[in-house]
Design goal:
The chain has 361 residues and is of the alpha/beta class. It is built from 11 helices and 16 strands. The structure holds threonylcarbamoyladenylate and magnesium ion.
Amino acid sequence: MTCNPSAPFDTQVLEAFAPSPSDPLRPNPDALERAARWLREGVPVVIPTETVYGLAAPALDQAAVAAIFRIKRRPLDNPLIVHVASDEQLEALGVSLSPLAAELAAAFWPGPLTLVLNTSLALPWVTAGLDSIAVRFPAHTYAAALIRRAGPLAAPSANLSGRPSPTRARHAALDLAGCVPLVVDGGDLEHGLESTVIDARGERPVLLRPGALTVEAILSRCGREVALPDAADPIRSPGMKYRHYSPRAELWLYPRNSGAGSQRLIEDARELRRQGRSVAAIARLRPDVEHYVQLPGDPRELGRRLFDWLRDFDERGVEHVLVESVSRAGVGQAVMDRLERAASRIRHTDSELLQTRGAEP
Ligand code: TXA
Ligand code: MG
């Protein structure tokens, strides 16, 4: 499926890197030049970052940012992250770092941390009318080089709204081919999960979206506990109210490390197969399914590969993906957040259904 049947572009794919003997991560000058040219003309392009692929447009260009929302079919009340590559660019956005933000930025920028901050500039087309702005300084060599050249870039993940974030150029192209003139291919990404979004306007960091940077890392580097948002405060994190990251297949989630949970997964797989369904599983033990991925022991590896596997299963026509939960420690917190959002059903061992959006097998 592409974004639009009357898609105007013959999408070109260019490599992000042109390695030289001394610099394997040298940004490809041609890919920088072409992307910068399209961005100057106000046309969004797909770029790699260290987290997921982004659909980028100049943050100060209202029409170009509006095109991002159109292309992604993104709800207009869901604000975008602005990506910067210097303190000067932050200042140009009217952002001054609070003491807390300065501390977090010093520890984790460039990197997979997005800070929600106050701004003196009104950019309602980026912020969806909120009085705060989300900013991030990516660690990806190509992305940073492009931002230095083209200025601050607003960039959501480069998927159609609701689909898993793309962690491969090919996946972004499958969603957006024809709607963007250029996809810059950075190969495999360092994290494969979106950035961690922290509200840094107050005294304490507040977690708006768990992501590639763990709360444990914030505690150990800065000595700061990350608080959860007040449930009574709905507009703090508009994106979190949407169901997200969904493959086309139904995703069912099972308890972790539990004999009864594994048994349940094995039984569901058997029953679905008996009904002639195409089933995939991500679990410690292999059930009787067509497509199986062994649950990695390292949650970072699962984080890196999860979206990739979900999209691959979709391409193979899988109808049900059965996934065993992992510990919420470290990157596991973000992985479980994505899995719970993607899940149409969360299984308990005792056959109680915590949540269901799909039909019984
Ligand atoms: O890793 C990432 O963050 C990727 C790469 C491309 O940088 N970007 C990304 O963007 O995941 P997106 O648009 O898919 O997610 C942005 C999240 C949404 O949940 C949105 O609601 C939240 O950030 N956000 C943006 N501005 C905000 C603000 N002013 N206040 C609260 N939340 C905000
Ligand atoms: Mg997204």
